[in-house]
Amino acid sequence: MPSPEIVEPAQPALVPGLNLGFLNLRQNAETGTLEPVVRAAEPDMLVLYTTQTYYHINNVFLTAANPQQANVWVGAVGLSFVPYSTYRWTPRLTLEGSLVRFDTVSRVNYNMQTVAFDNRLGLTDDNLLSWNFSASALRSESEQANPGEFYKRVEVVNNLNWFIPLDHNGRWFWHISPGLAWRSAEPSFENRLDAGGVLGLVWLPIPKLGLEPFFEGGYAYFPNDAPTLVDRRDVHLRGGASLFWNVSKHGAFTVSAFWLGNYSSASGANYQLLPSVTLNARIGF
Predict the structure, then answer these.
(1) 107 burial via Cβ count (<10 Å: 0-12, 13-18, 19+)
(2) DSSP helix/strand/coil, 190
(3) Which residue, 146, 151, 64, 161, is CA-closest to 114?
(4) How far apart are the C-alpha atoms of 53 and 3, rounded to whole Å?
(5) Separation CA 242–CA 245 (nearest Å)
(6) CATH class of segment(s) 4-284
(7) What is the pTM of this model?
(8) What is the per-residue pLDDT across 234-254, written as a single tens digit (0 to 9) for each?
(9) Domain ranges of the chain
(10) Residue 133 · residue 118 · CB < 8 Å
(11) For 30-60, what is each residue's pLDDT tens digit?
């Protein structure tokens, strides 16, 4: 079976549930100056979403000899629930089911189920700096009876999201997001410690539309050896852009396109995703 790690990095580098409203500014009718408004819009209690991802990978089985290419489609449907929130704090529970399909190696098609609990805590009065903590559990099961369930993991992620205004019109922001994650998996050679960061430039040409070109770099440490991957240490790089559109107060659409390269001390773990395109649509209640 292909390693699930080739699927999970294919997600766009966006703040989960990013609402452009908290970046917008309003104009004071008396002075004509721009002033911050409440930058944390009340989240929807329920959100239904779907994510469709296509990418091409040049080493689907993570092997040094005769690496095999494949086109991959990942289709996901999810439901998230916010039981309670304040101006600074938003907890969120998410349930998601995904189908993973390969064109040239369809015998290894599999399905994934994920449950995640996320917390977003604003650290400043304007909520432009926030701390995100998430804990999630995932299992992967082959379509075939053999091997059946072949992978499961629990992951804890900590990261900061900092938006730095670059103008007085509230149209340009630097986006800086360092993060640290630990994954405990079965089989144990999938255990990993990740450290990295995202640097993006957010442009809001109109209040409901945003564009973010971004670059991400990170380092992964694998404490346990795989049968064919020994003393593994990885550096991964990703670059691309995301376009997000808040269609209405409760609906949003996102499209992301990027390249990802993984460079490992274990030569079999070198791979690239190019192209990688993700579409996400969500509606809240």
Answers:
(1) exposed
(2) helix
(3) 151
(4) 17
(5) 10
(6) mainly beta
(7) 0.89
(8) 999 999 999 999 999 899 999
(9) 4-284
(10) yes
(11) 444 444 444 557 889 999 999 999 999 999 9
